[in-house]
Structure formats: C-alpha cells, structure tokens
Write a structure and sequence with these properties.
The protein has five helices and four strands; from the N terminus they run ααααββββα.
Length: 140
C-alpha cells in the first residue's frame, strides 16, 4: 500500500512539473506577448510608474486630493500629467472612486484608486493602436 501511495505521489509531482515547464515554454514562445512588452520597456514609463508609486507611498493627506498631489509632484520632476476625471462608467465597480491621469503626450494612462491603501494601474497607449483606454479597462 505504501508503494502505491509513493507511486501516486511521484506521478503527481511529475505531472505538475511537466505542466509548469510547458507553461513556461509557451510564455517564452509567445511572439506577441514579447512584442507588447517592448513598447512599455523601451520608454520611460517604468521609471514614471516607480515615481508615482513612491509619491503614493509617501502621501498622507485627504484621499480626494491624491491625484492633484501626484500631478503636482510629477510636474516638479518635469513630467506633465493631466487629470481626465473619473473613468468611463462600467458595469464592474472595480474602478469606482478612481481618477485617471494621462501624460501630456498621451502615451501613458494611469488610474489611481482614491482610497488608502492607494492602488495604481497604468498602461502604455501606443500610436499604432490609437487607444484611449487601457486594455484592462475595456476587458473588465
């Protein structure tokens, strides 16, 4: 009986390992996923996202003023954003009580939940797609 359970355990671990390896190989082969990733990482957006996260981490005033504070602090660093107001209405309430910031050159869109702890979501809006919303906003 012990041998049977030992064999089942080895088979289960082998199966899980094989599935993980196949999943990793598929992710590495996905031509489009690596293509999309390059758009974001070839720009300054990762740096800007880190700056915004740092600003949110150190912010301690009113939740309703958090977006104005981010715009002001980013402007002090030479990066201009404008407040687009609330996101478009959706059936999903995930982005309720959220403000939307876009960079002046319209290639970076940032959504900030205006309640502590603050949550930030951002994406790169490339010229080829002519998108005005992040893919995660449209697919929620």
């Amino acid at each position: 009986m012990i041998a049977l359970y030992l064999a089942f355990g080895i088979a289960m671990i082998s199966g899980i390992s094989a599935m993980m390896k196949i999943g990793n190989n598929i992710n590495n082969m996905m031509f489009l996923s690596t293509f999309k990733r390059d758009y974001y990482f070839k720009t300054q957006l990762p740096k800007y996202d880190k700056m915004i996260l740092s600003i949110l981490e150190n912010y301690s005033n009113s939740d309703s003023k958090v977006c104005e504070h981010v715009i002001e602090k980013m402007g002090n660093n030479g990066v201009m954003y404008r407040d687009e107001g609330p996101p478009p209405p959706s059936e999903n309430l995930f982005f309720s009580n959220t403000c939307v910031l876009t960079s002046i050159n319209n290639d970076h869109r940032v959504l900030i939940k205006k309640e502590y702890p603050y949550k930030m979501f951002s994406c790169y809006l490339n010229d080829e797609v002519q998108a005005s919303f992040c893919p995660f906003e449209e697919n929620i």
